[in-house]
Amino acid sequence: MCGIVAYFGRKSAQPILIEGLKRLEYRGYDSAGLALLHNGAFEVFKTSGRIANLEEMLPAVTPDAGLGIGHTRWATHGLPNTINAHPHVDYTGKIVLVHNGIIENYATLKKWLLKEGCTFKSETDTEVAANLIGYFYQKNRTRDGRNCPSDCNRFEWAVQQALNEIYGTYGMAILCLDCPDTLIGIKKGSPLILGVGKNEFIIASDAAAIIEHTSQAVYLSDGEMVTICGDSFSTKTIANEKVDAELKEIEISLDQIELEGFTHYMQKEIAEQPASLETCLNGRIDLKNGRVVLGGIQSRLRELARTKRIILTACGTAWHAGLVGEFLFEQLARIPAEVEYASEFRYRNPILEEGTIVIAISQSGETADTLAAVEQAKERGAIVLGAVNVVGSTIARMTDAGVYLRVGPEIGVASTKAFTAQVAVLSMLAIELGRRRHLSNEVAENLLKELVAIPGKIKRILDQSDVIREIAAANIDKDNWLFLGRGFNYPVALEGALKLKEISYIHAEGLPAAEMKHGPIALITDGMPAVFVATRCAQYDKIIGNIEEVRARGGRTIVVATEGDDAIGPYADHIVYVPDTVDYFQPMLTAVPLQIMAYHAAVLRGHDVDKPRNLAKSVTVE
Ligand code: AGP
């Protein structure tokens, strides 16, 4: 999604904005721009395409131009061209802003503003916000005739009046030509963080753009605004009520957001999984007593163990982890569970009986659909838990309690280490709830012992990267793949298909293997790749039958099998072995070769692995 960076301090803003925008590139974008307020004038530079295009048009750095705003745009309203790129200046020329989000009622507001004599240059909803602020600032009068109170800062007041008219989501950074010592940031439904440095302030969509300047931050909540004036700042609600800002330590480090010798972030994050999963599990498993300790929800575990139903809600890869979670809660805790696409759940007027638990799964903690599903669940009185990676993210702060994934920043658009951590968190929770219901201590202890062994087992899979690369190379000329699995590996088949689709642009479909004969087997053509996750599991013999169905029709079988399985050979054109583990934990292993295969396929096809076309790391708009 869009990225925002704004700077106010004693250094030159231009290079800081550019470096900050580069840190946000992974969010996905199609145009970029920045505006400086210097010597009583706005200097605005913007272009379609990459940040490198923007750099080419910038003048030499002006050392004392210490106030500016920058933006990477992921088009929602209007083509991804220069005129629609941010920043947008209002019709009076007094206001300039950048925006991440969607103004739902922009058309109605635009109609009214045009009637009031405002002019527009772009097709964007964002320009409506700029003109709305400019209108109230210039007229110094609200639509119902009220003037700005004499003791109010008119720039702040105009922003508040405009926001009272806007329905939608926004993270914004705003400058006013008459206020060369002021920078305003506002947040509602899109992320925005204030970094507080030594005589300098950075506002950004993501801590990755802040951390090299300061580790102190204020995580704005929805409906809050921050006004930086001179060398101090104040926070208040959009309704002008004072808010006491809480400074927090940013928990990511610079090296965590550097490539550290890898070619791509996705490659790094796949390789990090043994370590990231260990970090996710550390301190949360008491092997001696067969217990799980999940600080964020410990006080609610008794209540959670009594629940009659669990609904997991998420999008994309997080939804696939949720499907594993559904099976885990049903098999280990015997609690009815179902996973819901957040985008559907939010509009389905869901029935949530008293005591239902809703678990929102999200790496970014900013996905608009998942955020809306959380809001729906809270409105209906459900207990809402989060399984989120980004600390301080909107979803993390909206849920009643939660468990952080603790795998560090995931920058590659294709989610990898977050998936294995989401499954690990759901596994721990299912074991703990099961143990509080009917699971014996002995079974719980054995499961936890196996869970802590998973990171080491992933390491053994990573060593097969070259083998997997050859498999990808032998099949990337095929434009249609199938991914098939059963039981706990059915969600892995879905995840493997998504990975391949989203970065190699090869069409792939994930299915429960038994579903083949209900239609999809008609797709099988000579040499068509069919990836089977056929590890030693409860339905091993059944999936062998499915493999034979595909081979009998000329399909090419790529099989993920269990180490030591000597019987699988005749059924596979290609084999990748994974260590054995209990069915429940297999997704944390069997997903890894599929991540690696998708990675190599994308590289071999020459695609931008970390920033695949049309995609964003966090979909903060509907
Ligand atoms: C996964 O590789 C995709 N990038 C996408 O499906 C992602 O999982 C989905 O958008 C949900 O994102 P979240 O986990 O940040 O909510």
Report on this model:
The chain is of the alpha/beta class. The chain folds into three domains: 3-250, 4-Layer Sandwich (Glutamine Phosphoribosylpyrophosphate, subunit 1, domain 1); 260-452, Glucose-6-phosphate isomerase like protein, domain 1 (Rossmann fold, 3-Layer(aba) Sandwich); 458-611, Glucose-6-phosphate isomerase like protein, domain 1 (Rossmann fold), CATH 3.40.50.10490. 34% of the residues lie in helices and 23% in strands. The chain is built from 18 helices and 27 strands. The strands form five sheets. Strands 3-2-4-1-10-9-11-15 form an eight-stranded antiparallel sheet, covered by helices on one side. It has a seven-stranded antiparallel sheet with strand order 5-6-7-8-12-13-14, with helices on one face. The protein has a five-stranded parallel sheet with strand order 19-18-20-21-22, with helices on both faces. Helix 7 runs antiparallel to helix 14 and helix 15 (465-475) packs across helix 18. The longest helix is centred in the C-terminal third of the chain and has 22 residues, at 441-462. The chain is globular. The mean pLDDT is 94. 2-deoxy-2-amino glucitol-6-phosphate is lined by residues 315-318, 362-364, 367, 370, 413-415, 502, 618-619. 2-deoxy-2-amino glucitol-6-phosphate binds at residues 315-318, 362-364, 367, 370, 413-415, 502, 618-619.
